[in-house]
Design a protein that fits this description.
The structure is a single chain. This protein is of the alpha/beta class. It has 2 domains: 45 residues; 433 residues, Alpha-Beta Barrel (TIM Barrel). The chain contains 10 helices and 16 strands. Helix 1 packs antiparallel against helix 10, helix 5 runs parallel beside helix 6 and helix 8 packs parallel to helix 9. The longest helix is centred in the middle third of the chain and has 21 residues. It is globular. The relative contact order is 0.14.
């Protein structure tokens, strides 16, 4: 078979269309992200004669690799509104004083993001790979900043994080843009010295590694004071590339926002704190370090730790207003901000504490009562843009507040199939699939794919002009073949 000139022209048109990535405005507002979205459920080992079995439990590791709640589907939802995420750990946990042989599902995030980026280059997501603090006797290791030895679980967590980042960047370049050493762990002279030691140990073990190094913490403002702890903080800043600041609005600004019916006072408090801290660090500690707001947000329900009165201040309307205003500030100032969080994680609000100020079912609970914001009606498990409906893989994601459609995290977009997801973000733009399920993680939604991975919805497999020229190519090729039979 020989192709005529018109066939060749169409083939060239297809190639050009498929290589063209839709223009996207830079969106500096991403999401803090953890995958543990399942609701609490009755203990499957419930025994009326065993009080311990009467506790409710929440889904953890080994669950989020398939089904409606899969990490792949979670990322597809995130991609509607953001192009970046900030994660917390590599999935390592200790068992009898040593690294366990398996991992939490956080270990699945980086490979899933990378596979998605490779399959869907027009809706890429970049990520920071978290390294969570693994404690033994209250510390992550022993020794000083220049002679540090992490405990075995901490070492395994750090090594795993680097391996995940390197593998993700091999699958799809620039998927992982940095390593985040610990989260809200730097609270005193010892913990600050230990994180410095861990970072120096990592650099010694991996002399050719070049990923930017970050530390995520809520107390960077201590550098403005004097004393051993602030001095250690300053020394830590000199070891890293990115200072990640967890900043939530103050109680006074929360109450002012509630009274005003909008979140401007809270946003002003967060951004004012950010400007004060970063200006001091830039002028007095390091002029080369970069700054990121790694956590900020407003809960959609529950008692908030930032509201000192203990009243229920979680509110979806104010949460949406806070998100819209902080995103506007992030883009105007070209500063990365990570909204906490993409998905509500119910395990953070303990359903075994009922009523709010009552005892646990088994008194005395050995660790005492949880803080008010982590109890049954606490806000800690209610920050997400989305909430998941079930304790199993067959549920649905429901938005806690509606955001404007976006071109994969950029500007507003059309929605041809009316499923609430913009065409350039939609993995099946010609058939409504609000859950964006993609069982084989190939970038094509299940609604647009048959059982053998063959397109089931015609031009829905390719966005815009690429689909049109693909149909034109098939038509021209068939005519050419008929003429030569």
């Amino acid at each position: 078979m020989r192709l005529n000139v018109s066939s060749i022209v169409v083939i060239a048109t297809i190639a050009a269309a498929l290589q063209t990535t839709p223009a996207r405005a830079e969106n500096y507002c991403g999401f803090s992200y953890g995958p543990f979205v399942g609701q609490w459920y009755n203990n499957p080992h419930y025994n009326p004669s065993d009080p311990l079995s009467q506790f409710l439990t929440a889904p953890w590791g080994g669950s989020y690799d398939a089904g409606s709640w899969s990490i792949s589907n979670q990322l597809n939802l995130i991609a509607q509104h953001a192009t970046r995420i900030n994660t917390y750990g590599a999935g390592v946990f200790g068992w009898n004083g040593a690294p366990a042989p398996n991992y939490y599902d956080t270990a699945l995030i980086a490979p899933t993001v990378a596979a998605r980026n490779a399959a869907s280059p027009t809706s890429r997501i970049t990520m920071y790979q978290g390294i969570f603090q693994q404690l033994e006797n209250g510390r992550i290791g022993t020794g000083g900043p220049t002679s540090f030895t992490p405990n075995s679980v901490m070492a395994a967590e750090t090594d795993k994080a680097l391996a995940l980042a390197d593998s993700a960047n091999t699958t799809s370049a620039n998927t992982c843009v940095g390593l985040v050493f610990t989260n809200e762990f730097v609270h005193d002279e010892t913990s600050t010295s230990d994180v410095r030691g861990l970072i120096n140990w990592y650099k010694t073990q991996n002399p050719t590694a070049n990923l930017p190094i970050a530390v995520r913490n809520e107390s960077w403002g201590q550098v403005m004071n004097s004393g051993p702890y602030p001095d250690q903080l300053k020394a830590l800043i000199l070891e890293i590339n990115i200072v990640m600041l967890n900043i939530y609005p103050s109680p006074d600004s929360v109450r002012a926002s509630i009274a005003a019916g909008n979140a401007q006072a809270a946003v002003d408090n967060v951004t004012g704190t950010f400007n004060a801290w970063t200006t001091f660090i830039h002028n007095n500690v390091s002029g080369s370090v970069r700054f990121v707001i790694s956590e900020t947000g407003w809960p959609v329900a529950g008692v908030w730790f930032e509201d000192g009165s203990g009243t229920v201040s979680g509110n979806p309307t104010l949460a949406k207003d806070f998100y819209d205003r902080i995103k506007t500030w992030a883009n105007a100032n070209q500063t990365e901000v990570y909204y906490f969080e993409a998905f509500s994680e119910p395990w953070k609000s303990n359903k075994n504490w009922t009523p709010q100020n009552g005892p646990f079912p088994i008194p005395p609970f050995p660790y005492g009562p949880p803080p008010v914001y982590q109890r049954t009606d606490g806000a800690e498990g209610n920050y997400g843009l989305w909430s998941y409906s079930s304790s199993s893989a067959g549920g649905t994601f429901n938005p806690n507040f509606q955001l404007a459609l976006s071109t994969c995290g950029g500007e507003p977009d059309a929605d041809s199939d009316g499923d609430g997801i913009g065409d350039n973000c939609d993995n099946c733009p010609s058939r409504a699939n609000p859950g964006q399920r993609d069982a084989n993680n190939n970038g094509i939604g299940d609604a647009c794919e048959g059982p053998l991975g063959i397109g089931a919805c015609g031009t829905g497999l390719l966005p815009g002009s690429a689909a049109i020229v693909a149909v034109a190519f098939v038509t021209t090729l068939r005519k050419s073949m008929r003429r030569r039979r």
